Amino acid sequence: MLDRIESTRKSFDEDLSKVTDLASLEELRIKYLSRKGLITQIVDSLKDVPKEEKPKAGKAVNELKNHTNNSFEALKLKLESEAVNKEEFIDLSLPGVEKTIGSKHIITQTLDEIKNIFKGLGFSVYEGPELESDYNNFTALNFAEDHPARDMQDTFFVADKFLLRTHTSPVQIRLMTSKQPPLRAIMPGKVYRNEAVSAKSYCLFHQVEGLYVDTDVTFAELKGTLVAFVKQFFGQDVKYRFRPSFFPFTEPSAEMDIWWEPKGKEGRWMEILGCGMVDPNVLKNVGIDPEKYVGYAFGMGIERTAMRKYGIDDIRILFDNDKRFLTQF
Ligand code: PHE
Fold first, then answer.
1. DSSP of 201-262
2. What is the third-level CATH fold of 106-326?
């Protein structure tokens, strides 16, 4: 018995000296100290020791138990505190982690700039939903049921009589039916058209609508406001022109062009917005008396305006989410 105790102690000490981490310490515990471990087996076999030898053997077993338990606990403490220190160790010589800061998309930046200019001209900002009724998008805006203009704007119908708005003009209807004149607001947002995607057009783009309704609004004021806007936005020396045009919801109607000279290419006129005096039929549709009130409205495309300002020649790049492009602004 005493020999067995001695050899177990030796092999325990040897195994203990090879323990380097908590995993191998656990293996040691199972081998010696668990319920079926070598030490437990020795304790159990004490009962078979002859009576005379018992006191000596018992003492030796107790010593072995104490020795193995204490050595085990001491090493466990040491390894555990080492593991914690390893986790908390900070290497001050490592290079830092650079945080990348996001930036506003160029369209959002452009919208912000447009909003600020019009706020300075006395306009408030009003918004409507992208899912619209056929009534607000077309009928209330004086598009006849079978008017070919309905086809002009290739529409995404979502359900019978509901669609993704093809322009921001339905927000004019929402504003005029919810508030009484005088009204002066711009209405920014996304619009959708079922068009083939190309460098020039995309199935989704942004517009900013403008509306001014009061008792004495004139076409001259409309022109003055838009000229003030393009000068602030593009610069004082911007070249612009107005052309007569047609929209079912304005009469008379016009379009405004900006002179564009892309680098290394021949200059040309580029249309940036449609505008006109609110058609009296539209005022009637929203319950505003056309004998008492007049209004002007305009609607401009944001992508084109941003492309002109920043010299971008392919609209698709604005929707690609390519960081190499986005981080330039
Ligand atoms: N809604 C027109 C379009 O999308 C633009 C417009 C708005 C024209 C307001 C006149 C008045 O083309």
1. --SEEEEEEEEEEESS--HHHHHHHHHHHHHHHH-TT--EEEEEEEETTEEEEEEEEEEE--
2. BirA Bifunctional Protein; domain 2 (3.30.930)
Tokens read off for 104: 């506003």
Q: Round to whole Å and give the CA distance between 51 and 55.
A: 8
Which residue has the CA at smallest separation from atom 4 of ligand 1?
167
φ, ψ dihedrals at 181, nearest 5°: -65, 160
- Distance from the CA of 126 to the center of ligand 1, in angstroms? 16
Q: What is the pLDDT of residues 109-166, one digit of tens each?
A: 999 999 999 999 999 999 999 999 999 999 999 998 887 656 656 888 888 889 999 9
**Distance, CA of 135 to CA of 147 (rounded, Å):** 14
User: Is the four-CA dihedral 219, 220, 222, 223 of positive or negative sign?
Assistant: positive
Q: Residue 124 is which amino acid?
A: S
Residue 118 Cβ inside 6 Å of ligand 1? The answer reads no
Average confidence (pLDDT) over 255-259: 95
Report whether residue 276 contacts ligand 1, using a CB cutoff of 6 Å.
Answer: yes
The model's pTM is 0.71
